[in-house]
Amino acid sequence: MIEAVGLTKRYGDKTAVYNLSFQVRPGAVTGFLGPNGSGKSTTMRMILGLDNPSAGHVTIGGYPYRRLPNAARQVGALLDAKAVHGGRSARNHLLSLAQLSGIPARRVDEVLGVVGLQDVAKKRSKGFSLGMGQRLGIAAALLGDPQVLLFDEPVNGLDPEGILWVRNLMKALAAEGRTVFVSSHLMSEMALTADHLIVIGRGQLLADMSVTAFISANSADFARVRTPDSEPQQREKLSAALTESGGHVLPEQDGALRVTGLPLPRISDIAHDHDVRLWELSPHQASLEEAYMRMTQGAVDYRSTIDQKEGFQQPLPPGAQPPMPVPGQGQPGWYAPPPPQQGGQPFPAPPQGAPGQAPAGQAPAGPYGAPGAHGAPSAAPSAPGAGTPNPYAQPAPQAPQGAAQPAPQAPPAPAAPTSDLTKPEDAR
Question: What is the pTM of this model?
Fold first, then answer.
């Protein structure tokens, strides 16, 4: 059994754990829950003697961990799956731990088979995935066949098959009379694995009770009632009747009614007495996640805010209008339309008199905003291949930087059609 009495741990002006007292009894899986930064890992480190408490004490079987004879044979723990020398193979890592604790070598092969790593026993652990590292850490915890086991996030990185295996392993170990203490953030998994819960928040004890009692104490069960959608008057009639009978009725967004304070048989009788047809009458029991969130909502240190994208958008220039929303944008299956085609180029020509139009006698701007080649003739609209991009056209010669630019000239009269290989740059 693990027993903590007035356990307190301070790091400078930061109090990680304060006056924490609880018992972890054998024969059951005890879940250890709490938000990030609540002190769960610090508490486990103090149980294992890795951190000294600032006040209070914690014992295992009546003794501090450091006074246990051959502690590795009595207590197994997984706190950090990465605490492995990457150059060692899985078997050599476990073999070194076994030799330090006087455990026979045959036990190494046994636990490798238990965790399913027998086929990669000779591979270096630095090449292991996160799930394989978790299995190796569990194997190290089981190495001494201990009576007390501590696991910090044991299913982190495991696939569904591995999670199911860990769940069954924890239950089997507790059924053998061992003390199993498990920390996890997966509420759905903890609801299926744990028999008892210890919940802390900001280093202080919030709850120490069974899973069933915890859910019942921190949530409200209700009945979901639905009447025919085509007859809203029946819903109003039933709501008034349930309220008169002492029930509390709340409408839901989909048109159903949430009823508390009345058992399901009583709701059915009231509906029958008032000649109201029911399409649904079902009980709703809160999950462990709902109860946990309700209890710990005031003890969460790290909260996300709704991103309104404020400060990320450039301010509009004075007098500019915000862009109009595109119909359908953001809906499933919506794609941006292709850009308009103009003369074979995906850039529209500026309208007559529009801002940015070149003055009379000056070459029009190119598609990227740069002025076109001065004096370069353009192909006639009726010329063969006009408006078709020419991949072989050579760029027009550019004057050296700093050299005087020739005066703009009016475009000459349309010339005879030329071949694609000699078409000027502007016609490209």
Answer: 0.65
